[in-house]
Amino acid sequence: MPNQSPKTIATINFKGGVGKTTITWGLGDILSTFSDRQVLMFDLDAQMSLTQAITLNEDGSIVGPFRSWYENSKGKNRTIFDALDAYTKPGKYFDFPISYETIYPITDRFHFVPSVEDLYWLELDVFDRENVKDFIRRVLGKIANSTKLPQYDYILFDCPPSFTLLSYSVLSCCDLILIPVNPDFFASQGVRLILSTLRMRIEPFPLPKIAIFMNRAKTKGLLPSGKPKVTNETALYMQDVERVCSEVARREGIDARFLKSFVRERVGLKRAITGGGVPPELVDDFRNIWRESIEYLNE
User: Is the overall model pTM greater than 0.90, yes or no?
Assistant: First the structure.
């Protein structure tokens, strides 16, 4: 039987350094570890930050099983770039096989499509926008109808920090867009810019729901409920982002929401990707972000 359609979620922010890569990995790790959900994650950034983080040991060496898998994938022309190259060839049916030669199993329930340096050429507009727009939709169709792959419940995309052809292809077919922001002066300005231009960027496709939340929130002490309490400065930034989100959503007629949940600032979080999982003290943060996002998506 063909697989049921999974929920597709893209993490974006056109400002670098906000932690979108870490957020994407953290949500995938939490979901695959603390539930029976099957998760597939894509790294579509030519900088390969997520791929390098996941596939490196703490000492900087490449994880042994991944090294041989990656060399085999590239040697057989089975990378995500090879799929794109096959898809854009004129007059040729898209018969690229999607299998475990393209998808790397991190764990039984957490699978991964790594980035490759060749994606850099997308930044140079080598490919035509019109030819690429349905690429991710077609790849997801092949995955959903494969008899060799599991039924994925959720597919996560770590998108580039700039709007590329692959970003367009992802955002035009995803169910939810996640936008992490940091507690700083530029957060609300960045949110205003993204929300004001997203519809124009992915026309003629409809805009999916958009969830915005604070990452690297500074906290101090606990609330009476036992939950972390954000500092006054972070609280002001959160209020400002929520206000801008509401204003632009009304003006542009888009479905966007600022989430109450947040991920606290932790120095070692980025290193935790290579260390085996989300730090125990942040598990609830990621679970709360996920719960609130999915409740919003299912409304």
Answer: yes
